[in-house]
Every structure is written in C-alpha cells, then in structure tokens.
Design a protein that fits this description.
NADH Oxidase; alpha+beta; about 30% helix; about 300 residues; seven-stranded antiparallel β-sheet; two-stranded antiparallel ribbon
Length: about 300
Amino acid sequence: MDKRAIELSTIKKIDLTQLEPISLSAFYCANTKNQSDHPLINDLESEISKTDFFFSSSKSRRTYPGSSKKILLPVKGMHINCRLDDAILNRSSIKTFRKSRVSIEDLSRLLYFSAGTNRQYEAKIAGRKITWSAHTFPSGGCIHSLSTYIFPYSIDKLQHAIYHYDPSQHALEKLKAISKEEVAKTVVSGNNLPNALAIIYITSRIDKTKDKYSERGFRYVLQETGHLMQNLCLVAVSLGLTILPLGGFYEKHIEKILNIDGNQEQVLYVGVLGKPDRKQKRISITELRKNGTIGDEDYSV
C-alpha cells in the first residue's frame, strides 16, 4: 500500500445524508459580501490597468457588425407627455391584452427612453483616448453589460424576427427570421399570452462586470437588469402600453434563438409588451387609510 492510500484510509467517512442541504443563493451571498479589509474589487490603481479596463468596458455591449439589416429607428417627436407620478401609479403587471398594433415610433420611444444612450464621455488615460457611453439606467462601474433583444408580434414595419437593439445608433439589427410559435416556447406562459405586441429579452455579458468586481459583479448585473426592466415598465405605461415582467422562461431555448452561449452572455429577464385590455383601478393613500390597510402611525414623522 502506497503512502497516498494509507492517508486516504485514515480519513473518516462522512455520511452525506446527514449533511444540511446547501442553498446556492445563500452560499453566493455569503461569499460575495464586501469586507472593509478585503473588498471584492480587482486592483485598478495603475494607469495602465485603468486604460485597459475603460477600453474593454467601452466595448462590453454586444454588437452585430455583420447583421443582415440595420433599421435606424425614427427620432422625430422623441418626447412623452406623461407625468412621472401617473406612470408609477398606473404600472401594473397585466396579463391580458387586447388586440392592437404599435407604431414603430412608439417602439422607438420605448427603447430610447428605457435603454438608450444619453451621454458620452471622453478621457485621456496613459496617453490613450478612451470614449465610452452612459445610458438611461445606472450600471455598476458604467460598464453597461446588458443587451436588449426584441421579437415583434405586431409592430408596424417589423417582421417576425429576432432584432438586437443598438443604443449607440438607436437602431435595430435584424438577426434572423423566426416563427412566433418558436418564440412562444421561450416563456412558461407563452401559450397563454394572446395579443402580445412583442417579447423583450434582456441579456448580460456578465464576464465584463466580473472583470472589475470579481464574483460580486453578478450582484451588480442583477441590479442593473432590474433598473432596465423598471424603465421599460414605466415608459410603456407612459405610451398607453404595458410590460409584463416574467421570471418564468426557458434559458436554453432563448440561448438557442438568440445564438448566445449561456455562459459569457446570459439571459436574465424577459418582458412581454402589450396593450392593456382594461384600465386598472388605482387606490389613493386616503382610501388605504380609510380601509384600515395603512394606519396613521405608519406616517408619523
């Protein structure tokens, strides 16, 4: 018997059935907490590393230079006549839509105000000129690793195909034609969403955020995804539409139709765009207090 065999023979056998089950989410959260003496952020102190990082992050968003067709979205009349408080209070996860179509102009507004580029920055670091963009939602480290894809069911001037939104040009890149039956298979409730106008997929090149923030970067990607989805919800309401956010979707099928690997680029959120079939009843704080749902003591200052 060799030395290794002897060592192995002395190890006490563990009854795996007696171990407490490990929660992957709890394990991840526990091991990605920032500690004051050991923050989970890679060292970017040198000018060279800063240059490389900003150059890399400026190219973190997915691009399709070989796309068969790029559609420049209309930019005339890019404004929305809706108060913010109305948009917030009217937002609701409506699951039934009425038959309708949406104009390419309204789709343009939805994508621009939700996910568009609203600022550009330039800096000279270590002798190199770096340009990067910021968008209408916050992103950890201004990395903006998210991409937005859309399949239109009933949008003027668009075919049944997968399109990628390019915020730098405010344009759609047509990737490939696909049937609505195939797209319906990507969400758990796909066959129960008649009259949907479009399905929107949000993905992330998570590795770009992890380059700066290590494993903790996944936290920031999830936060960023939530920011973008809330933008979509509020802008949709402002346009007389609605977005139903979905957590029930089939990643493998989406990866296939988007042609992403599911590793370096992952799908994180799905939204269904539609025209609400009825107006949701709003309730005021006064009514809530009258019904006893909210007590006056909850508002004491």
